[in-house]
Amino acid sequence: MYSHSKYSKLKIFSTAMVLRDPYLINILDSRGGDGLRGLQNLGNTCYMNSILQCLSSTEDLVKYFMNIYSQFVNYKSRTKGLVAKEFSNVIKNLWSQSGRSFQCQQFKDSIGEYKDMFKHYDQQDSHEFLTILLDWLHDDLNQPEDNRVILGASKETGEEDWGHWTKANNSIIQQLFYGQQKSTVSCDTCFEKSVTFEPFSSLSLPLPSEGNKCTLSDCLQLYLNGESICGWHCPRCKRSRDATKKLDIMRLPPYLIIHLKRFSSNGYKKNSNVEFSRTDLDMSNFINGLEHRNWKYCLYGVSNHIGSLDGGHYTASCLKKSINKWYKFDDVRVYEIDPSTICSSEAYILFYCRKN
């Protein structure tokens, strides 16, 4: 728990309080759009279109950017609030009624100003784009809580580290998408341990090396099993040693993004069919923190990849909760799909929302 001085009042921007506002809850209906507009391919920008459609299906994020984001813009950020502004324009266009597709050239131009890899029209990795975009949006909307006092938080469970990190990192992006994991590196010779706590915006899970079928649980267990590393400088041995690195998930966000690591360092792609739950992902067996709550999630978006890394194509499969139907977003083409087709070897990034 965090304790606060009686001489200072805690100023907290609460996502839950803002998004429970009745006006905001009904804002999508009042705009009249259905969120089913396609995005024109500007030239190998399907990776970008796929991620934008998945984020446009993230209801709490859409409510925020449709109405109130401008109250929290940090103009001292690296991108001076420009990425948040252009992202808001994309969301508003995707939920407007004017036509079935539109061109988000201004958004692409704005991200190209700050990252050369997005300046041109080469194919990029959708997970890398998502990670950078969330980082930029967080920076554009960050409102540090300078007057928060952190007392009595546990060091062992990561609560203290989380408290200090969220004191300096307070945005809608952090509150919706960020969790925390613990990294423990142990020397194989003297068993000295080094423990660090790290925030994450997505979990990048390895796929089993053998077999064409596996489950998401298999991937999660493999992620948490630990791995051998070479050349770790042991502080006790005072020399490079073989070591074991173990990860533990300590805290999960309301919106959980899971990246399936289909591509190896040499560009080889694993086309394994990963079975994952669409309506009832239970993460309680994979979290090691002390925080007790409902760890069940529902799927609402998938970034799909077809083909090779260089010559492939990205699409999105998204649930529109207001009508409880799944749609495929293939650039400008948008059409309803059978939910049973979502779990396939094309699934690359999974977007989950915590139940209730």
Describe this structure as you would to a colleague.
The protein has 356 residues and is of the alpha+beta class. It has one domain (33-142, 172-354): Cathepsin B, Chain A, CATH 3.90.70.10. Helix content is 27%, strand content 27%. It has eleven helices and 16 strands. It has helices at residues 15-19, 22-25, 27-31, 46-55, 59-67, 82-94, 105-114, 126-141, 159-168, 172-177, 216-224, and strands spanning 38-39, 101-102, 179-187, 193-200, 203-205, 213-215, 227-234, 239-251, 255-260, 273-275, 281-282, 296-306, 313-320, 325-330, 333-337, 347-354. Strands 5, 9, 11, 12, 13, 14, 15 and 16 form an eight-stranded mixed β-sheet that branches. Strands 4-3-8-7 form a four-stranded antiparallel β-sheet. Strands 1-2 form a two-stranded parallel sheet. A hairpin with a 6-residue loop joins strand 12 and strand 13. Helix 4 (46-55) packs across helix 8 (126-141). The longest helix has 16 residues, at 126-141.
Structural class: alpha+beta
| Number of DSSP helical runs | 11
**Overall morphology:** globular
Q: Give the tally of structural domains.
A: 1
Low-confidence region ranges: 1-31
Helical amount among residues, as a percent range?
25-40%
- CATH architecture label name: Alpha-Beta Complex
Tags for this model:
11 helices; disordered N terminus; Cathepsin B, Chain A; single chain; alpha+beta; eight-stranded mixed β-sheet; four-stranded antiparallel β-sheet; 16 strands; 27% helix; 356 residues
